[in-house]
Amino acid sequence: MAATLPAWSVSAAEASATSPNSSPPPAGILKRTHCYKQVGDCRIQADVYRLAESTNCPALVWVHGGALITGNRASLRPQQLQKYLNAGFSVISIDYRLAPETKLKFIIDDLRDAFAWVRERGPELAGIDPKRIAVVGHSAGGYLALTSGVCVEPRPRAIVSFYGYGDIAGAWYARPDPFYCQQPAVAKEEAWAAVGHGVISETAAPERSRFYLYCRQNGLWPKEVAGHDPDKEPKAFDPFCPVRNVTKEYPPTLLLHGDKDTDVPYEQSVLMAKTLAGHGVEHDLITLTNRGHGFDGGRKAAEDPVIAETFDRVVAFLKQHVSQ
After folding, report:
1. In the chain, where are the structural domains located?
2. Hey, which of 28, 76, 255, 321 would disulfide with 269, CB 3.0 to 4.6 Å?
3. How distant, in Å, are the alpha carbons of 76, 92, 94, 163, 223 from that of 84?
């Protein structure tokens, strides 16, 4: 196995290196890119955003989606970043190693190490109060945000999951998906040609989505991402499903989901909410009526009053649990 360098072992030169995916931040926002972990030749990076005058402020760890197969930290939308910064937070948008080259156990290790890095280096790099950290994630990032509630110590003060999921071994992921099966079938050879070219932690390569489509059409996502067969090894998924690990100590959680989601079933957030309620965990589920997956994306989302109100509720929830 490749050697892993924890955050505090990465050299200063590497820590300040700029990613190919980096872009200038909006006016008035300070941005630095840091390598928080290195595994072999794979440098895993985070973008740290703050307002110039911020000090001793709470922090948000922001986790991108992409089915754990594709995506990168640069997908944080500028208008959403601005809302979080204006509310008094510093924001740390993280990468993590991607599947199938890296299996889920090690992706979750990256998540833990990212939080450890924010606590260790955040006060120095961005004036962060290490005791006031929350997490926001979208889709697969929402899944990782929910997972942080059971795998990160100390736990985040609050969790926000946009169209995430708490069960990765259910039929919705472990069986051919009716929605994706309506699309032309992706051949196994084409799917595997898009991946498997070395360990990576960030990408915008569109061809990797073909591998995801292949997995959904054949019910293979849990096997290819986690490295276990849910039919033959159901217990192997226990540590990977946050819904199976909720206790009364789980952090306050806000769930957001469109009830017409064709990628991640709305029922995933309903199930998570029911489980949180059963353990007496403070939570709320915001249902976006007649909205699909990624309801906050697209050019019109920034002008949509429903989305604006939704983000007001997200910011209020975060400030309630993290600002003090």
Report:
1. 4-168+240-322
2. 255
3. 11, 11, 16, 19, 36
The token pair at 307 is 């989305």
Interatomic CA distance for residues 319 and 59, integer angstroms: 11
CATH code assigned to 4-168+240-322: 3.40.50.1820
Among the residues of 52-139, which ranges form H helices? 78-86, 104-126
Tell me the CA distances in angstroms from 162 to 95, 113, 310, one per residue in order.
17, 22, 11
End-to-end CA distance of the chain: 42
The CA distance from 79 to 298, in Å, is 12
Rounded Cα gap, residues 75 and 34, in angstroms? 17
Angstrom distance (rounded) from CA 149 to CA 309: 26
Q: Any residues with CB less than 8 A from the CB of 16 and at least 6 apart, and which?
A: 32, 33, 34
- Rounded Cα distance between 198 and 256, Å, is 34
Contacts of 241 (CB under 8 A, 6+ apart): 166, 167, 168, 169
pLDDT of residue 323: 78
Other residues' Cβ atoms within 10 Å of the Cβ of residue 97? 21
The pair of three-digit structure tokens given for residue 43, joined into one six-digit string: 């440098």
Q: How far apart are CA 59 and CA 45, in angstroms?
A: 17
Each residue of 135-175: pLDDT tens digit? Answer: 999 999 999 999 999 999 999 999 999 999 999 999 999 99
C-alpha–C-alpha distance, residues 192 and 116, integer Å = 34
Q: How many helices (H) and strands (E) does the chain have?
A: 10, 9
Which of the 8 DSSP states describes residue 40? T
> What single-letter amino acid sits at 182?
Q
